[in-house]
């Protein structure tokens, strides 16, 4: 995949705008912005601005490594201290999950993020920019889906449920 430098910088600008719009929509629709969205948006805007300002693709390539390292180290330090930081970051994403389940999920994602950081650095060093971008879709996305699905048995063992049927019937999900 061959990209022109100009398209990279335009795409980065569009990504910055999309991240800011996501923040605004979250505040408007939910009344709040999750800590994970705040952090991700700050990193997207920061590294995106550096990419555009210096006309250097390095910053857009290093951003995932920094995000993965920050999340991975934070989650593992929290796990080591007995604090499920993922519970705070995701808020109420997994209703009914026990504290032990949250700790295990934080630990697992912490290690996974460190693996992704290392993988991003290896691919960044050895692939062209276009091939690195393709890897973001064809390598990182499938790995993340597989890892997420691999967590389901552990989540179910630690209290995650499909929800109370009566509650769903009485209060169906709305769009």
Task: Describe the fold and architecture.
The protein is mostly helical and 175 residues long. It has one domain (5-161). Helices cover 78% and strands 0% of the residues. The protein is globular. The N and C termini lie far apart (38 Å). Mean pLDDT is 84; it is low at 164-169.
Briefly characterize the structure.
This protein is an all-alpha fold and 175 residues long. The chain has one domain (5-161).
Beta-strand content bin: under 5%
First and last CA, distance: 38 Å
User: How much is the radius of gyration in Å?
Assistant: 18 Å
Morphology call: globular
Q: What is the succession of H and E elements?
A: HHHHHHHH
* Overall number of domains: 1
Number of helices: 8
| Helix fraction by DSSP (H/I, runs of at least 4) | over 70%
Q: How many beta-strand runs?
A: 0
Which structural class fits the helix and strand makeup? mainly alpha
Uncertain regions: pLDDT < 50 for 5+ in a row?
A: 164-169
What profile does the largest beta sheet have? Answer: none
Query: What integer is the average pLDDT?
Result: 84
Provide keyphrases for this structure:
8 helices; mainly alpha; 175 residues; 0% strand
List the helices and strands and how they pair.
Layout: H1 5-30, H2 35-54, H3 58-80, H4 85-90, H5 99-126, H6 129-150, H7 152-157, H8 165-170
Helix pairs in contact: 1-2, 2-3, 3-5, 5-6
